[in-house]
Write a structure and sequence with these properties.
Layout (H helix, E strand, L loop, with lengths): L2 H10 L13 E12 L2 E12 L3 E5 L6 H8 L7 E6 L2 E2 L5 H7 L1 E3 L5 H4 L3 H8 L7 H6 L1 H21 L15 H12 L6 E5 L7 H16 L3 E5 L3 H7 L2 E6 L2 E6 L8 H10 L7 H24 L1
Bound molecules: adenosine-5'-triphosphate.
Adenosine-5'-triphosphate binds next to strand 2 and helix 2.
Keywords: ATP-binding, Nucleotide-binding, Transport
Pfam family, one: ABC_tran
InterPro entries: AAA+_ATPase, ABC_AA/LPS_Transport, ABC_transporter-like_ATP-bd, ABC_transporter-like_CS, BCA_ABC_TP_C, P-loop_NTPase
C-alpha cells in the first residue's frame, strides 16, 4: 500500500458513517447547495466535506443529482442556493475557468467539436486558462511564445505518461473509448489541479484498459492530488476509493468506507427505491436473487399452510 493510501485510510478510520460527517482536513466544504429544475429539486445537499489527499467516490441511483452537483461545484451550472469553499476560498458563483485556475477541475466527455481536434490540440486547450491576458500577449510576444512552448512541453509529457504520445497528431474522435478517458484525464491535468473530479471514468472502457485507467487514478492520489469521482461500476468503487458518499434524490444520504457502504440500509433502500440501475456486482446480484427466492418460498409455504 502506498504511503498516501495509508494516510488517506487513517484519516477516515474513526469517522462516523453519517451524511455530512466532518473530515480531518477537508479541501472542499459544501453547505446548503440546491438546484431546482421547475418543480424538481435535483440537488439538495445540506453539508458535505471532501478529505484532502483521498480518493472519494460519489455514487447513487440514476437521477440522484450527482452530475448536476458536480456541475454546480465546478461552475458549469448555477446553484439556486448554497455556499462552498475550496481550500478555504469561496467558489460559489465562480465561473468554470476560474474554478479550474484555482486548482479544481472536472473531466469532460469528448464533445463533437473536440473530436475534430487532434489529441495534442485537445491537450493545449486544457491549458487555455493558464495563458496570459490578451493585453500582455500583445505587448510581450516573446513571453507569450515561451509560455506556448511550456504548454506544448507539458502536454507532451502528459501524453507520454498516459501512453498517448503516438496518437498526438490523430483526431481525438479516432481514439478508442479507453483512450478517450485517458485523454480526458490528461487534459484535466494541464491546469496542475489539486482536486480532480472525474465523471464516470470507466464508462465505455474496454476491459483491457481498465487496470491501466485505475492505476492512473490511484497515481493522482499518490502524487498528492485529491480525487472525487462519480461512478456506477461498484467494482471500481471498491477497488480504488478510500471513502464513498452516497446521493439519492438530490441529497447525501450516507457516507462510509467502500467495503461496507452497500450494506447500509439507507443505501439499499435508495437503490431499491430507484427500481433500476442498482450498482450490484455479480455475487451481490446472486445473493439478492437467493434472498428474493427464499422470501417467495416462505410466502408460498405460509399460503399452503393456511
Ligand atoms: N438541465 C436540466 N433540466 C431539467 N432537469 C434536469 C436537468 N439536468 C438534470 N435534470 C434532472 O435532475 C435530476 C438529477 O439528474 P443528474 O443527471 O444530476 O443525476 P445523476 O445522479 O448524475 O444521474 P446519472 O447517474 O443517471 O447520470 C434528474 O431527475 C434529471 O432529470
Amino acid at each position: 500500500m502506498s504511503d498516501r493510501k495509508a494516510a488517506a485510510l487513517a484519516a477516515f478510520k474513526d469517522l462516523a458513517r453519517d451524511p455530512g460527517v466532518p473530515k480531518p482536513d477537508p479541501i472542499l466544504v459544501v453547505d446548503g447547495v440546491t438546484r431546482r429544475f421547475g418543480g424538481l429539486t435535483a440537488v439538495e445537499v445540506a453539508h458535505v466535506e471532501i478529505q484532502r489527499g483521498s480518493i472519494t467516490a460519489l455514487i447513487g441511483p440514476n437521477g440522484a443529482g450527482k452530475t448536476t452537483f458536480f456541475n454546480q461545484l465546478t461552475g458549469f451550472d448555477t446553484a439556486d442556493a448554497g455556499k462552498w469553499t475550496f481550500n478555504g476560498q469561496s467558489m460559489s458563483g465562480v465561473p468554470a475557468h476560474r474554478v479550474a485556475r484555482a486548482g479544481m477541475v472536472r473531466t469532460f466527455q469528448l464533445t463533437k467539436a473536440l473530436s475534430r481536434l487532434t489529441v495534442l490540440e485537445n491537450m493545449r486547450l486544457g491549458a487555455q486558462h493558464q495563458r496570459g491576458e490578451n493585453f500582455w500577449r500583445a505587448l510581450v510576444p516573446g513571453a507569450w511564445r515561451a509560455q506556448e512552448e511550456a504548454i506544448t512541453e507539458q502536454a507532451e509529457e502528459l501524453l507520454t505518461r498516459f501512453k498517448l504520445d503516438a496518437k498526438r497528431a490523430d483526431f481525438a474522435g479516432s481514439l478508442s473509448g479507453g483512450q478517450r478517458k485517458l485523454l480526458e484525464m490528461a487534459r484535466a491535468l494541464m491546469v496542475k489541479p489539486e482536486l480532480v473530479m472525474l465523471d464516470e471514468p470507466m464508462a465505455g472502457v474496454n476491459p483491457a484498459l481498465t487496470q491501466s485507467l485505475l492505476g492512473h487514478v490511484k497515481n493522482l492520489r499518490d502524487e498528492g492530488m485529491t480525487v472525487l469521482f462519480v461512478e456506477h461500476d461498484m467494482d471500481m468503487v471498491r477497488d480504488i476509493s478510500d471513502w464513498v458518499i452516497v446521493m439519492a434524490q438530490g441529497a447525501v444520504i450516507s457516507e462510509g468506507p467502500p467495503d461496507t457502504i452497500m450494506s447500509d440500509p439507507r443505501v439499499i433502500d435508495a437503490y431499491l427505491g430507484a427500481h433500476h440501475d442498482a450498482p450490484l456486482s455479480e455475487s451481490e446480484l446472486q445473493e439478492q436473487l437467493h434472498e428474493a427466492e427464499a422470501a417467495l418460498e416462505a410466502e408460498i409455504e405460509e399460503e399452503t399452510q393456511k
